[in-house]
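Fill in residues.
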């Protein structure tokens, strides 16, 4: 079993958890390849008993990994999208963060999880990705997102106007602090905080959720992901911010943006005892009432 490992730097109080993760991995017959900046950090913080191979980009992973372990929270797992890209390597998140909608495996569950991976006792949960195309090739080859695209003001406190079109047909002008275009996976993220609906992962749709709209009758809209969503941004500010998951770039009014569904999915690993409805109940505390 070949495992790629990705993570971010962490604070000292997480050292024991991460040390425990690598101690468990060391007991399995697994060949590991670790994200090089992460490995350099680990060598300073932990006692690693094994020398590991490293990778820096998606090109280094071709044919070298059966799975990727993301060690951290949901933000860490979102980073793996550009590293996996179209290779379809399944990803499983080991949660040392907080809420963990996507990173659902806790440290104490890791031995069972690795055993299931070795025995192929799991299912793949394919998630749709959105693709951003811009007139200036804004994000280069890393122009995909698992959660959402967010357009918002960069510095000014004044509103912005975002003109939205579906397949070239005018939809609406959003006078707001920003606009979120979310996948079903991202429906439980920023979009939810701004009043957007929760969608099942298999829903073939995008959600357009305004951030603090000036017109109070403007509400989130669900559209088929077969549409191409085009955006024009205007405002008093010279610069705006375009964010794909955790990656941000500055744009101005001259930049034309178009969002469409990517042709390949992102594969999450789900163990047989997990599903999206269980995750919703656990993470959002549904049904936790003394009357139940």
């Amino acid at each position: 079993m070949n495992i790629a490992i990705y993570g971010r730097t962490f604070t000292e109080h997480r050292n024991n958890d991460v040390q425990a993760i690598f101690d468990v991995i060391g007991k399995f017959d697994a060949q590991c390849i670790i994200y090089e900046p992460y490995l350099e950090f680990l060598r300073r913080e932990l006692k690693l008993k094994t020398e590991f191979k490293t990778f820096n980009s998606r090109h280094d992973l071709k044919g070298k990994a059966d799975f990727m372990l993301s060690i951290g929270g949901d933000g860490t797992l979102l980073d793996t999208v550009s590293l996996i890209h179209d290779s379809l390597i399944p990803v499983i998140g080991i949660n040392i963060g907080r809420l963990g909608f996507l990173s659902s495996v806790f440290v104490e569950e890791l031995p069972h999880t690795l055993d299931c991976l070795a025995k192929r006792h799991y299912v793949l949960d394919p998630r749709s990705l959105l693709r951003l195309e811009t007139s200036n090739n804004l994000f280069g080859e890393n122009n995909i997102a698992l959660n959402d695209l967010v357009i918002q003001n960069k510095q000014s406190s004044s509103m912005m106007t975002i003109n939205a079109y579906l397949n070239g047909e005018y939809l609406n002008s959003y006078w707001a602090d920003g606009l979120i275009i979310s996948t079903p996976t991202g429906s439980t993220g920023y979009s939810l905080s701004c009043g957007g609906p929760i969608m099942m992962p298999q829903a073939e749709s995008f959600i357009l959720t305004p951030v603090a709209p000036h017109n109070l009758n403007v509400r989130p809209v669900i559209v088929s992901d077969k549409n191409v969503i085009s955006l024009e941004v205007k405002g008093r500010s010279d610069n705006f911010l375009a964010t794909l998951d955790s990656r941000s770039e500055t744009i101005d009014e001259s930049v034309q943006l178009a969002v469409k569904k990517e042709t390949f999915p992102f594969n999450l690993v789900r163990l047989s005892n997990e599903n999206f409805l269980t995750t919703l109940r656990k993470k959002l505390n549904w049904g936790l009432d003394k009357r139940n």
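The helical segments are 15-26, 36-45, 74-84, 110-118, 190-193, 276-283.
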